[in-house]
Design brief:
With 484 residues, this protein is mainly alpha-helical. 48% of the residues lie in helices and 9% in strands. It has a three-stranded antiparallel beta sheet with strand order 3-4-7. The protein has a two-stranded parallel sheet with strand order 1-2. A two-stranded antiparallel ribbon has the order 5-6.
Amino acid sequence: MSVRVRFAPSPTGFLHIGSLRTALYNYLFARHNGGSCILRIEDTDRTRFVEGAIEEQIASLAWAGITFDEGPHVGGNHGPYTQSERFDLYREYGMKLVENGTAYYAFDTSEELDAMRLRQQSAGIAPKYDRSAMRNQYTLGEEETRRLLDEGAAHVIRLKVPLHQDVRFSDIIRGEVIVNGREIDDQILLKSDGFPTYHLANVVDDHLMEITHVIRAEEWLPSTPKHIILYQAFGWEPPTFAHVPLLLNPDRSKMSKRHGDVMVKDFIRKGFFPDALVNFVSLCGWNPGSDNEFYSMQDLVNSFTLERVNKAGAVFDYQKLNWMNGEYLKQRDPQDLARELHPVLVERGFNYVDPTFVAEVIALVRERVTFVADIAEFADYLFGDALVPLSAEAQAMLDGNDKISSALDTFRKGLDASVIADADSFKGLAQRSAESVGLKSGALMKPLRLVLTHREVGADLFRTVQLLGLERCLSRLDAFTSHS
């Protein structure tokens, strides 16, 4: 049987960065093995439904370049893999378990269940459904159970866990896992309203969709023994499991908003490149076996194996992600980046937005920024004439130094088109202007940058002057001279 995996989000929120990684690992595993990757919407919990969540999740996955072979919104097909449309199917399979004795009716009220939990807590016992002490098919007997059902009494259907045997399964990442049956709860399979729980719907769908490998987050590991029992109850062969490690904050706590963005839409809004985010996320918990840090999607497909996914949690290093995005920015075509930057420039009201000019600015400053939008802020002095105010220290340095003022005046008088056209001529003029008042040859560069850009740091000054052009350079030098 060929490899078939699935990514199964629920509409209870927007796409988490950890869910993006899970989807990515499923996608890479399927593509590496020439298999299929299925999208399935698990929306059995209608009480936690968030409007627009699934649409946002699918859009974020598409932005990241993760595509699916079957499922909603694939190839113009808007189904059929949405669990809320398959409730009759789950009820049919739930009743099969009642019929073969691996599931049973339970009639306990919420008050009775609360009282049970209190008794267990008082006795120092971990809360778990007590089959022998509650109102269910086994304590009531078949006749009373049938009477209650005929009367329409509220009930659920629970899984009958084999208490006296171990549940065993092999996990590609975790190795052999063994759980004693007494540690497993008699999980509800069908709720009192007839809706299935996650566990029943998940197992039925994975079997009917012929899923060969279940690749999901570590948080689902405690549920897996229940799923193994369900597979055994149906007489089905379970898939192979692989539970990927959690993403952690820098302090190794579970990833949360307290330390930074956690939703993919936030990373998109900030301006991360999809290939940079995918590259970074792929390495959070997976060891490619080489020192290389940069992988295209095809590189990842070629290299990915579940055996190289680590068991320990992976720290999400926001600083490294920023660095990686900056590295991707350096490799992009300035003409492409100019098109991305254009709306930002227009929004800020800049006039110098000719695409060729913008591309030249990007080529000059991109080594110093992380995001495309940063360029509009970092190089505002190239796009517009409303310069940011000088810092108090910079203003004091310029105002309080007659030698610098005199040298800048000399530089201004010697500045012409020929100087701007040639780097040696530019440097020579700056050197002569400084030495004319007894300053060292390089002493004029910082003051000159301050006057022309109102920034203490920036890209190559000669290239900056070229992009500013003679007219704007003279105008800014004149403005300084008139106020000095």
